[in-house]
Amino acid sequence: MMAEQSTQPVDPAGTEPQRLRVFLVDDHAMFRAGVRAELGAHVEVVGEASTVAEAVSRITATEPDVVLLDVHMPDGGGRAVLEAMRRSHPQVRFLALSVSDAAEDVIGLIRAGARGYVTKTISPDELAAAVRRVADGDAVFSPRLAGFVLDAFAARPDAPVADPELDQLTNREREVLRLLARGYAYKEIARELYISIKTVETHVSNVLRKLQMSNRYELSRWAADRRLV
């Protein structure tokens, strides 16, 4: 009995096809190590970065197929990386991978040019499949996150998804605000975002100043009015 022929394409030299080249951007080294270990059997991880400037430089140097991009990092986070790269390297596709499932984060990253958005609860196999789909040009979301995008772009197609007051907050400040509005204590916010309580206090102080409010209760009402909770 003849063996079945492989349907996987090979190059003229008869070698296996090249694996997808993936770059990791996240400011937590342990998380990057975990993703690298989980994806190593499926893709070639060609580099990683923990800051916006480092990401822009190394993505430019390595030219990966797909960048797995965290949303919340210092100096503008994933959105800043996208905005720096999308004109100079339009062939590179970006998939957001974040702890945040907030509508404003999803919409902001998609408007900036990401091809998809998944949360860090995704399984390794699902993540590998999402990377392949994004590399092929598909858009990838979980059903709930896809609903945010549809609501934002279909319900009011002629109106920009923008809020001048919200836009002045950094990604990290928005995340702190969202958790604060959900009733989290400073200690719980620090644990959730892997930052110190003092850093949480600084972010809350900055949000209060920027929005010209005096306490967390005003912030909670403001966030609820904008459906950030």
Task: Give a topology summary.
Blueprint: E1 21-25, H1 29-39, E2 44-49, H2 52-62, E3 66-69, H3 77-85, E4 93-98, H4 103-112, E5 116-119, H5 124-135, E6 140-141, H6 143-154, H7 164-167, H8 171-181, H9 186-193, H10 197-211, H11 216-225
Parallel strand pairs: 1-2, 1-3, 3-4, 4-5, 5-6
Helix pairs in contact: 2-3, 4-6, 8-10, 8-11, 9-10
CATH superfamily of the largest domain: Response regulator
Instruction: Summarize the helix and strand pattern as letters.
Output: EHEHEHEHEHEHHHHHH
Describe the strand arrangement of the main beta sheet, using strand numbers.
2-1-3-4-5-6
Number of domains: 2
And the CATH topology of the largest domain?
Rossmann fold
Shape: globular
The counted number of beta strands is 6
Number of H- or I-type helical stretches: 11
Main sheet?
Answer: 6 strands, parallel
- Strand % is 5-15%
Low-confidence stretches: 1-16, 157-161
Distance between termini? 62 Å
CA radius of gyration: 20 Å
Helix content: 40-55%
The level 1 CATH classification of the largest domain is Alpha Beta
Structural class: alpha/beta
CATH architecture classification of the largest domain: 3-Layer(aba) Sandwich
Averaged pLDDT: 81
